[in-house]
Each structure stands twice: as structure tokens, then as C-alpha cells.
Design brief:
Rossmann fold; 13 strands; alpha/beta; 22 helices; 2 domains; five-stranded parallel beta sheet; 11% strand
Length: 498
């Protein structure tokens, strides 16, 4: 039942007579609540974590096991593996509303308050104590761990202003200003990049997980917090910036490893979901499938490339930002040439280099070549890989022969589609080859031009033709076969080898 479909009790007395019974609210922890809602979803066959792609058979079953086991858990994986997104999706397993004592900083349980302020409120007003309600999104508290985080940020501190205004002694519990963790009471507390958190703060966390008590400025406070604690960490951080202390690690029930997309289709689905490409310009936008596949293949190749540091990983954001830049370059060209349909080309992927070079860390060999060169090699390799998927076994000898007979083609990045198409139609066999790429796409010169450029760049990637910045596409230079009477080294240079 949704909260908007019935009257929510406004006082503790009304609450006792409602469906929010004492048994349901007082004796059911947030872990029990999530477990019960998860079981209901699974019995109804509903999607557990909408928007999380590629984890159905790997990560999600382990998360489900952790929730069913009522475990605190940590997601361990490289950057850009949807760890934070998965943690935020946990709120889908919380109740639509949760009653708490109105005005309480830590949203205390009306039936069993743990803070002194709420205990005094219930004692004073009884059944007239006011009740407020929490939606699921407000029961999720997230903190990015940094070395400068203090105990006061996480647990709390003494507030002298409260003491002065209320005429209270500093040792009174009423003077406490609660930190993030107590404010996550009856909810989910998430810490990103846990190894970056100072050791003494991690000690405070596991003390709460195990004992439920805290100390603020030497004043012991017993707070049996009801909270699910979840964490993320990057394996690189264990040696680069910090580590998770052993006692805390021991108290984390499940350690779950995340991963990058396993298949190209999963990667494309994630990129389509996250990238901002639905801009709906005047005449529409059309992104051919092979362009999406090339963009995604760049990330896959980068994760295999020896010149790139695998310990740092290659984030899925590489594909997302690259596709956005590719569409933007195509959009810029369409606006400049007053074209109605925006269709990205392979040349737009090369124009998107700024979205690639900052997304990976280079090894020594890569540093020598430079990020731009490595990125260009990745694009070329991706084009070659996708070209093979479409044209493996297809006879393109006519196109290659046209260049071998002296034909050259210079393409400008900003060239209008109609003008480019006229040049491309002069290459024998090219328009016949691109017909398979146009299936299901609009009949537009921009679509034909994009498909033809992909074929040419695929031939270049496979070294069937050549390309240079000055002359454009041309015939591949063939090396002369050595003859029997050839000498090495040449006679005039023989003295240098003696």
C-alpha cells in the first residue's frame, strides 16, 4: 500500500492503532526489513536492481546473498564499475515510509527511542508525541572517505552552543551534535573508497558495528544504532593510499568483487543508458550501430593494452564521455552545414580524443609514446575489430584496386554530407559495400557518407589502404621483395659494421 493512499498517523497514540504495529516497527531491524522486501520482490519475479547491467549472473546474486544473510558488505572493484550506483539502488528494498519521532536528529524509533531527547519527549507527551515519516531516499547516507575525515564528522561532537542555550552541562547527552553515522540510524550508511579513511576512524566504525557504543570527547554514549553499513573500495588503494584495517575487515560479512562489462552488448547498453545523446536537434539524431560498437571496443581494447596500467583500470566513463563527444562533433558539423540529420562518422571518434586521454593511466612504454598516440592506436584497432564483424569474407578488392590505380581521397572533418557523398560515389564498389550498413537507418546522404567512411577506415585499419593527414586515403605502399644479389649492409656502409 502506498503512503498517499491512506491517512498516516500523526501521533504516537494513533500510530499504536495503525498498521505500524509495535511488533513491525520496534522489533524489525533495517536488515530484517530489507530481507523481507527482497524476498517479496523475488517471489513476485520483479527486477531487483533496475539500471544495473551485466551483473545478473555475477555480482547481484552475491549482493542478494549478503542481504538475505543480514551482512554488512563491501563492493571491491576498479573505478567505473557501478559500485556507488549499486549501493544507491539498495533503497529500493526499503519500506515506502518509516515513522519516527518528529524533530529527532537521528529519526528515532517511536516505540523504542535510543536518544535522550526522544526518551524525554515520549515521557512528557506520551501518546500525543508527534510522528513524522521518512521516505526511502532519506534513509540512505553516503560519505566519500578522505584522509581529513574526523571522528566528529562520522560520530559526532559536543556542541557548546546547545549547552549554552539550554543551560546544560557539557557532559549531558543533550549537548551532542550527531555525526553522519548516527543520522543514518534505521537506514543505510555507505562509505565510498574505504581505504582512504584514517585508521582511527575505521576503529570507531567497527566498534559501533560490534558493540553499539561511541565516545564523544571522552563522554561514553550507548547508541545501539540500527544501520546497514556498506562500503566500496578500489584494490589499487590497498597499496597506493591506504588499507582497510584487519578488525574492520573481519566484521564486514561479505566481500563482493565487481567487474567491467563482459560482452560488447552489455557495454553498449550501459553507455546508451548513461550517455547524454538524446538531444533531439531540429531534424533528429541517428547513431549507427557500428559507431556505438567502435566506441565500446575502444574501452575493451584499452583494458587489454599493455601500454595502459591495468591496476588503475579503464572506467566505463571512457565510453560514455567518448560517445557524448562523438555526437557533439557530429552535431557541430550539422549545425555548421545546416543539415537536419546528425549522423556521427569515424572521423568524429578521432575528434573525441580529449574524452579518452584522461581516462587511463599509462605504463612506461605508453608514456614514451604519449596519450594521444596511444588513444589513436586504440581507435584504429577498434575500427579494425568492428570492420571484421561486418566485412569478414566480403570481397572489397574493387575498392582497394581503385586506390592502387592511383586514386586518392581527402576527407575534411567539417565536410557536408552531400559533398562528401559525391566524392565517395566515385570509388568503385564502395556504395555496394555499404548497403548492409544502411539497413534500418534513414535514407539520408549523412548515413551513406558515415557508412562509406567506416569502410575506408576499416580498410586502413587492416592495412589494405593507407592514410595520411596531408593526402588522405591512398594505396598502401608495398615493400619490394629482396633479391638474391642484394647485399646487407650495402657495400658503401660495410666499413661501419667491421
Amino acid at each position: 500500500m502506498k503512503p498517499s493512499s491512506y491517512h498516516l498517523p500523526a501521533t504516537l497514540g494513533e500510530l499504536r492503532q495503525s498498521e505500524f504495529s509495535q511488533e513491525r516497527i520496534q522489533y524489525r531491524t533495517v536488515k530484517d526489513e530489507m530481507r523481507a522486501n527482497l524476498i517479496c520482490r523475488m517471489e513476485r519475479g520483479e527486477s531487483l536492481f533496475p539500471g544495473i547491467i551485466g551483473y545478473d549472473d555475477t555480482v547481484i546474486p552475491q549482493v542478494v546473498n549478503a542481504i538475505l544473510s543480514r551482512h554488512h558488505f563491501i563492493l571491491l572493484g576498479l573505478r567505473g564499475q557501478a559500485k556507488t550506483r549499486l549501493l544507491r539502488a539498495l533503497t529500493e528494498l526499503l519500506d515506502p515510509v518509516l515513522p519516527y519521532l518528529a524533530g529527532c536528529e537521528i529519526r528515532d524509533n517511536p516505540y523504542a527511542p535510543i536518544c535522550q531527547h526522544c526518551r524525554l519527549l515520549v515521557a512528557e507527551k506520551g501518546d500525543a508525541a508527534p510522528i513524522a515519516y521518512l521516505p526511502p531516499e532519506l534513509r540512505y547516507v553516503e560519505k566519500l572517505a578522505t584522509p581529513d575525515v574526523t571522528i566528529a564528522d562520522m560520530i559526532g561532537d559536543i556542541d557548546p552552543i546547545k549547552a549554552a542555550r539550554g543551560g546544560l552541562d557539557l557532559s549531558s547527552e543533550l549537548t551532542i551534535h550527531y555525526g553522519l553515522l548516527p543520522r543514518a540510524h534505521r537506514g543505510i550508511f555507505a562509505i565510498n573508497e574505504l581505504p582512504d579513511l584514517a585508521g582511527k576512524i575505521q576503529v570507531g566504525l567497527f566498534n559501533i558495528m560490534q558493540e553499539g557504543d561511541i565516545q564523544i570527547k571522552g563522554y561514553p554514549v550507548r547508541l545501539p544504532l540500527d544501520v546497514l553499513m556498506v562500503f566500496t573500495a578500489n584494490p589499487e588503494d590497498y597499496t597506493a593510499r591506504g588499507k582497510i584495517i584487519t578488525p574492520l575487515k573481519d566484521r564486514i560479512g561479505s566481500e563482493i568483487r565487481t567487474h567491467y562489462p563482459v560482452t560488447l552488448d552489455h557495454g553498449i547498453s550501459i553507455t546508451e543508458q548513461e550517455a547524454w545523446v538524446d538531444r533531439r536537434p531540429r531534424g533528429g539524431i541517428c547513431i549507427p550501430k557500428y559507431i556505438k560498437e567502435i566506441v565500446e571496443s575502444i574501452a575493451f581494447l584499452a583494458r587489454e593494452e599493455k601500454k595502459i596500467d591495468k591496476r588503475s583500470g579503464v572506467s566505463q566513463r571512457l565510453s560514455i564521455t567518448c560517445l557524448e563527444n562523438v555526437v557533439s562533433n557530429a552535431e557541430r558539423r550539422a549545425l555548421r552545414n545546416k543539415e537536419r540529420l546528425v549522423v556521427p562518422r569515424v572521423s568524429d571518434i578521432y575528434a573525441a580524443l580529449p574524452s579518452l586521454t584522461g581516462k587511463f593511466e599509462l605504463e612506461y612504454e605508453g608514456e614514451l609514446k604519449g596519450a594521444d598516440t596511444v588513444a589513436r592506436e586504440l581507435i584504429k584497432g577498434a575500427v579494425g575489430r568492428i570492420y571484421t564483424r561486418y566485412f569478414d569474407g566480403v570481397n572489397v578488392s574493387q575498392i582497394v584496386q581503385w586506390f592502387e590505380l592511383g586514386g586518392t581521397l581527402k576527407i575534411r572533418d567539417s565536410q557536408p554530407a552531400a559533398e562528401l557523398l559525391k566524392q565517395l560515389e566515385g570509388i568503385q564498389g564502395l556504395m555496394e559495400a555499404v548497403k548492409t550498413l544502411e539497413t534500418g537507418l534513414p535514407k539520408d546522404p549523412a548515413v551513406k557518407a558515415s557508412a562509406a567512411e567506416f569502410v575506408l577506415d576499416g580498410l586502413y585499419a587492416h592495412r589494405r589502404i593507407s592514410r595520411s593527414e596531408e593526402l588522405g586515403y591512398m594505396a598502401e605502399e608495398k615493400k619490394r621483395e629482396p633479391r638474391e644479389h642484394d647485399e646487407f649492409p650495402p657495400r658503401g656502409f660495410r666499413k661501419h659494421y667491421n
